[in-house]
Amino acid sequence: MDISQQERTYETSMADKSTPSSLARYLDGEFWETKDHIREEISQGEPFRTMLFGVLPSGPQLGVVCGLFGGAVTNLGSPGQKKKWYLPVTVCFTGMFAMTERGHGSNVRGILTEACYEPSTQEFIIHTPCEDAQKMYIGNSMKGNYASVFAQLIINGDSQGPHCFIVPIRDRHGVMNPGVTAIDMKHKEGLHGVDNGILIFDNVRIPRTNLLSKFGCVSADGLYSSPVQNKSKRFNAMLAALTPTRLGLTVQAIAAMKLGLIIAVRYSHSRRQFGPKDQQEVKIIEHQTQYLRLMPHLAAALALTFTTRFAACTMDHALCKGEVLQNNSSLQALVAGLKAYSTWENLACLQECRECTGGMGFMMENRIPALKCDSDVFVTFEGDNVVMLQVVVKELMTQFTRQLGNSVVGGLIKTWTSSVSDRVRTSFLGFNVDTVGDMSFLLKAVSYRERVLQRSLATRLYNKVKKKREEFFDAWNSCLHHVTGLALAHIHRVTLEQFALAVQECPVEEDHTLLTKFCLLHGTSLVYQERAWYLEHHYLTPATSRQIRTQMLELCRLVKDEALKVVSDFNVPSCCIQAPIAGVANPRAEWAFYSAPEHPIRASKL
Amino acid sequence: MDISQQERTYETSMADKSTPSSLARYLDGEFWETKDHIREEISQGEPFRTMLFGVLPSGPQLGVVCGLFGGAVTNLGSPGQKKKWYLPVTVCFTGMFAMTERGHGSNVRGILTEACYEPSTQEFIIHTPCEDAQKMYIGNSMKGNYASVFAQLIINGDSQGPHCFIVPIRDRHGVMNPGVTAIDMKHKEGLHGVDNGILIFDNVRIPRTNLLSKFGCVSADGLYSSPVQNKSKRFNAMLAALTPTRLGLTVQAIAAMKLGLIIAVRYSHSRRQFGPKDQQEVKIIEHQTQYLRLMPHLAAALALTFTTRFAACTMDHALCKGEVLQNNSSLQALVAGLKAYSTWENLACLQECRECTGGMGFMMENRIPALKCDSDVFVTFEGDNVVMLQVVVKELMTQFTRQLGNSVVGGLIKTWTSSVSDRVRTSFLGFNVDTVGDMSFLLKAVSYRERVLQRSLATRLYNKVKKKREEFFDAWNSCLHHVTGLALAHIHRVTLEQFALAVQECPVEEDHTLLTKFCLLHGTSLVYQERAWYLEHHYLTPATSRQIRTQMLELCRLVKDEALKVVSDFNVPSCCIQAPIAGVANPRAEWAFYSAPEHPIRASKL
């Protein structure tokens, strides 16, 4: 195929884009107009950053500069501080976010950097007392001007716990502030758009007003005050500043998933290999293994789209009502869980996309390798996923205790009763093979699993801590497998519920029908993954469990052709897809071009 | 920690290496002396290639030049051809292997490149008739001198099926042979040591003697002859040439796994995070999730080590006895299955290693990212894993038919009887909770699963093809999920058996005890992964299934400290480990250094 032919295909696909389908609109949600506007700007080659942020350093650093540094300032600073440091960051200087230390990444509470107050000069002295206190993985550290540094606030030798300080690192000409050392950490697997380095402070003096003061401030003469008295609560309130960033990461993970799926689904509908004797080879999407590997991820991408929108709305409403996020611990838990689930799901999805596109998927020009390498770190940064799952479960345990009116013994009795009624109800479901294809069966199943895991974890912890007097850390650690299982069960349940709600509210019948199939697939896939657990708990019989498998295979087969419509309705501009195997020509790699697939259903209608 | 201290640690660990433990010897197997010699050479900085191969192009291309090009020549060529093209490849010129085409990767039988015989000049005319016939992903294509090219051998307009031809691509000065075009495919996710490109032939003439003639040759006047009459069998015989390469790939995958595990296990024993209140933080290996993520992979690495040795011995014996590999289809199937299992297992293992080492694991200096990116392609090249699994199952189905004496009806009756006796025996096992920790229980379980899946697949295929008269391709395709499940069940069973045999034969009691635990863990992990299937088939009761889970958790906990000894006994020279977080200093990344962990058991004895 020559280039002129490629361009025609490209133009046709662009023309298609100009009128988004009703499903594309529905997937965009409330802000589709804004999104369309952004797509147009991107497609016209207007640098995205110019439109949104004025003069900004190049793209990938955006997350660090605005999301992390800016997030710290807006969430932890006073109104005056926001004005001073957040607005200018978009035009005058660049920031960085210095929380993680060599010795403390996940366990932020244990950071060792010190900020000692000196009343005589009204300054804080920021200091790195040992190797373990070095600030590590700091994005933008080799260029940035200011850092939001988390350090133990020390007044008269007493620590008030971690607080956040604005520390000048370099002036506008790049000259280092005396006492600050920055070391480049050099090469990483991905995210090459951001440098990462180490910051070391040797008694660096900053004005008293550089302490972000929303949750704690120090008077000129060294008196500490905070709206949150309890030290532990205060610390948690500060960590809540990370919630919007984590949601942002979820959005990025979903975007990567979608891009991977667009590429893999399109190629699977173009590429042919093997087939019945003496006939044309079949499209590789026709191979059972191929659609089984891709379709559940496509369903999950849709579920995550709706769930993330739900979380974002909740957050918006909270912020509009002037609520402070740190009081909304269930939102924090939801976002922590979403962050873990979406980033892992993204990695698994991209890996399948890579393998399903074979050697072509290994070539950089087809995008998947870079997507994988860039988003790999998502699962351990901004809160390691295993830690995130524990955040979820701590909230679930709190909710559980609250429900029981703080009476654990009474709780156990109620629990037992509820457990019995669950068993009766579910045995009925378990034996009725016909119901497994029903949305309500799937919703009940994932909800049952969450509830049982929650109850049994509470009981186990109670026995270990209260009866056997085990140290809490040990008790918790010996249940970690249970904990992570519960957290994922929780987030799975939420995604299925949000997907089901979105299906229910979908106004266009055709879209409703299509989304219903994907929603059933998502639910079936969740139950299928955990069918051993359901069998162990007599929620599924061996016969219904096999039925679930059959249903998985059947649903994946059923949606494989419609997948092409769904990935098209993700409505990603061609210039963002780029991958030649997805039908978007790239003059650097003409050899990789496959013309965009025709929709098999539309094609068969002609 | 300063560098002199780092060097001391480094020297100590090198000193340790000089006297390998009995376990290290046992893991090395029969050829430990050769391996020790190679280690010494590597540690002394002698370039590996000099010692083994004389003047050779740099390392990573070794696989392409010797393994692939060389493999084609030695396995498909006549003795004279071997002398002419294999020996010189190590000193005079470099080769490449051109099988895959744009249109045909997995389905090699469908390749379109043509080799037409012209009796008047006694030449073959090698030609690329269309875009789909372009040879793709050819390693060393931008530099190599000769290519072993697979093409349809055409005599008087009739195709004799794919054959392999030696085609000169460039002379020694790099000047292209007329009619040959090479296009660079440029950037890939990994394996940057080998270039990959496209080869296109425009009526390139080569002498008649350049057809590798072991399985087919053409006389001067154009008469074709072959020792294998059946075209399909002849084709399969040629594909058998890939068997040694696939085994080589398995060895590489295991090496990558081991390296990843050395790094992750050591770091997990040094790095501390979280802990009981007011006490020192614990080593991260103490977190239940951490040891659950790493230990099953360590067990699998051991199982694969012994299984690969078994396959290599079988191959050696076959070759020594002068057997032709293509007649040993069960060996071919074993190697195909091992290739798929080991390369997937390696990817999963490296991903866990990356995540378990957090941000440090994302830094290139700590090696894991490059290991991941380089070995990612293993799962789709030299035979896509999904295709490999089908190779395994085709052999299993053949064996099954053979066992039944070709009488499918009689077979079904026998099958049913055997199935009943299985059920009786296993119900007994299923209900006896105490037996699940027993090696023989685990061996029986994995063997039962393989047998049942084999039987039921045969029945399903029989019903679809014989009774319902479905096209074989469609019948097979609709069972692909079953097929891949059976293939993995087969290879899982073989790895567990080979591991158990190695444990049995281990002469040193202490090592025997240690290996027993890892072997139990490997078996437990295999059954745990498939516990849903066992529950569905009443092989496990809900109670025994939970027992399997408990056993998994317990075994992982039990071996987490001994893991340090095992990774040390992999006996990989420090200069090959390099990763600073594993305690091997690297002057380029002093900041990443963690001193090598002390063995917790040894330490506690002091």
UniProtKB/TrEMBL annotation, chains A, B:
The active site is at E382. InterPro entries: ACOX_C_alpha1, Acyl-CoA_Oxase/DH_mid-dom, Acyl-CoA_Oxase/DH_mid-dom_sf, Acyl-CoA_oxidase, Acyl-CoA_oxidase_C, AcylCo_DH-like_C, AcylCoA_DH/oxidase_NM_dom_sf. Residues 97-204 form the Acyl-CoA oxidase/dehydrogenase middle domain. SUPFAM superfamilies: Acyl-CoA dehydrogenase C-terminal domain-like (SSF47203), Acyl-CoA dehydrogenase NM domain-like (SSF56645). GO terms for biological process: fatty acid beta-oxidation using acyl-CoA oxidase; lipid homeostasis. Keywords: FAD, Flavoprotein, Oxidoreductase. One of its GO terms (molecular function) is acyl-CoA oxidase activity. Its cofactor is FAD. The keyword ATP-binding does not apply. The keyword Flavoprotein applies. Residues 439-582 form the Acyl-CoA oxidase C-terminal domain. Pfam families: ACOX, ACOX_C_alpha1, Acyl-CoA_dh_M. Gene3D superfamilies: Butyryl-CoA Dehydrogenase, subunit A, domain 2 (2.40.110.10), Butyryl-CoA Dehydrogenase, subunit A, domain 3 (1.20.140.10). FAD binds at T100, G139. GO terms for cellular component: peroxisome. Residues 241-397 form the Acyl-CoA oxidase C-alpha1 domain. Belongs to the acyl-CoA oxidase family. This is Acyl-coenzyme A oxidase. It comes from Oncorhynchus kisutch. The gene is ACOXL.
